[in-house]
Every structure is written in C-alpha cells, then in structure tokens.
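re the bet — no i am not wrong, look at it urself. input seq straight from the record:
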Amino acid sequence: MPDSQPQPPPPPSSSPGPADPSSLLLCGARLTDGRTVDVRLGGGRIEAVGTAGSLAAGGTRACGARVDLSGYLLLPAPAEPHAHADTALSADAEGPVSYEPQDVQRRATEAALLQLGHGATAVRAHVRVGDVQGLAALAAVLQARRALRGLAELTTVAMPRVLTGVAGADGLAVLRDAVKMGASVVGGRPDLDPDPAGYVEAVLEVASEHGCPVDLHTDAGDPARLARLAAMAGGLRPGVTLSPCGDLGRLPSEVASRAADQLAAAGVTVVCLPQGGCGGVDRRGAAPVRLLRAAGVRVAAGSGALRDVSNPVGRGDPLEAAFLLASRYGLTPEEAYDTVSGSARAVLGLPEVRVEAGFPAELLAVRGDRLAGALSLAYSRVVVHRGRVVARTSAVREFCSSAASVELGLPRQGRGQVS
C-alpha cells in the first residue's frame, strides 16, 4: 500500500459555468522540452496543458486564479524518501536531544515545512520507537502529520532498536503497536542487532502481516549479509527499500556488481544520501548510483539528516541531492532529478506525475529555463500540492551601481547606493 492514499479525481465538468474558485491557471511556464505553456489545474489534477495564452479564455470552465510563471521551469514536484523527523533541527540544542512530545512535534512540523519550501510535497520520516521514548516520538510525528494535512504528506517509518533475543520481544511488540497507531512503513537498523538476519526476518514478518512497505538502514558493507537480505526480501509487496548503502561503493567492483544484480533481482530499491549520513549511520559517501542503475536497481535520493548531530548543516533540499548526483556522481541532470522526483515518488507508493492532463497536480516551478541551470541556481521556487500553491520562495539578486552594471544592464539595488 502507498505511504498515503491519493484522493481519486472528481468527475469532469461537462458544461460551461462560472469561474471555479478551486481551479488555478499557471501561465507562461517553460517545460523541460522547451515549450512555453499554460497549465490549468482543478480537483487536485492537471486539467489541461496548452500553448501560452491558449487557456486564458477558460475553455469549458474558467479559472478562479492565475499565477504568472514567466521565467520559471515547471517540473513534477520532488518527494523526500528519507528524513528523520524526530531528530531534525536538534543540532543546536544544549545537552541530549529532547524527546518530549511537544519538542518532537515542533521540530517535525518545522522540518516538513522547510522541506516543503524546497519543493517536497511528500516526506517519508524515520522515527525511533521503543527504548526510553516508547511510542511518544511516533505519536508526536503523527500529530505533526495531521497538522500538515493539505500542505504536505508526512508519513512515518517505525524504527525499533532490537528485534531478536530476549530484549527483542519488547521491540517486536512495540513495532506491531506502532503500525496499529499509524506508522505506514516498518524499518530499522538490522546491522545494530546482535542477529541482523533475524532482525530482517522479524521486520518482514510484521510487514507481511499488515501489508505495509519495508525501509531498512544499512551501510551494505557486508556482501554476504546483503545477499541474505535480498533473498529474504525478494517478492515482498509492496516493496523493500534500503538506504543509504554507502559502503557498497567501497567493495571490490565485481563484488559490488554481484550485490547490485541480487538487489535488482529481488526488486529492492536503494535510497542514496548524497548530502551525507543520517542518525545512527556513520557519514559515508553515497551509494554507487551508476552501478546500481546499470544493474536495473531503482535508485532514489534522499536528504537524510536535517541539522541534527549527524549533519548539523543538512538542508533537506531534494534539488541539492540532485545537484550532487549530477556534479559528483556522473548522472545527467535529467537522471539526477528523477531520483528525487519520479523514483522518490515510486518509493513512497505515490502515482507518477507528468506535466500533462490527467496527472496529479504536484508541481514545482523553479526560476530558470533549463534543468541544469535550475539545479545549479534553484533559489526562487513555487510549490503546488493538490492543485494549489502551498509555498513560495523568492530571491532577488541586485548589484550596486558600477560601470559593469550599466554596460551589461544588470539590476541595481532598489534603495539607495552601496558604497
């Protein structure tokens, strides 16, 4: 089952009528194929895409509002497949991280809004359960999810510490309770359990009982352990995801290639974290995305830690993850953006988005006219979720008066002079 169930589209209107206040017209946006278009949204879907100016008259149903996207590139919105909502924005805290419910809820809400501003209209958050915090942190993140309804989709992965042996009995009970409480995905860190294979087996059993996805943390540095995991995960529906798999790239090439083939055969998805590690996992390099893609493994990219002790400068920006994959790991801008959009949405079980009629109105407009430039200088952004604008970020670059600015026609400071 998907992390969150999308709403079915409403039946189309067959007769003209007054302007629909829920509809929206995006005017003059540029697409990645070079076309400049108008895009009409309604009922949470893309209703029509036409050449610039062609939809202004409204057609069968006039638009209730318009947004001028001249100078913007219009893209399917990214999604965040790997966040840590319970520890986000805690790097500057004095002393241990607070797991008081109100603190967790505040951090989780602020983090999701920050990621929404970057363009991620859906976020999968890993949350620790059991031990001292029990289910309190999960309850707080679920409360944040309810508060964010209509702005962004926040879903949770329950992460117990130990699931085997005497100590694991309590962890297994807590994991089942977490799913009943509302966790959409089961996961955790098998590498930290005394019996990693037993941990994976327990998680897969709970997932099978409840029909939910699995999302596990592993550095993937032990090829034998990775092979066992792939063998156990093969065929599980709705699917198994591994992240961040940073050590896979440190294995000998033939060993890494064999592991990639095993993951592909099992239908396992890998989420890499090009910005660094995440809570409980050492900071390592990103997984070998080109090798995995060549083997047929679906690869998505996430942000991981968002200004916690694992990465105190983490941005939680999907476009930065795509930028790093293009600039450091050899992906084309199109391939890199797919890891944070189409592939990331697939990880979350969400429907595909294209800027075409009939697809969900989950969109990101970025200042620029080419994808490469948007990944490089993605300052100004407009975010659309369920057919309405839910976030805007505007950046203005100005230069002081100089011979160069006059000659080149560069914008000057709006007020006064800069000495």
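see?? The two ends are 60 Å apart (CA to CA). told u. also The mean pLDDT is 88. so pay up
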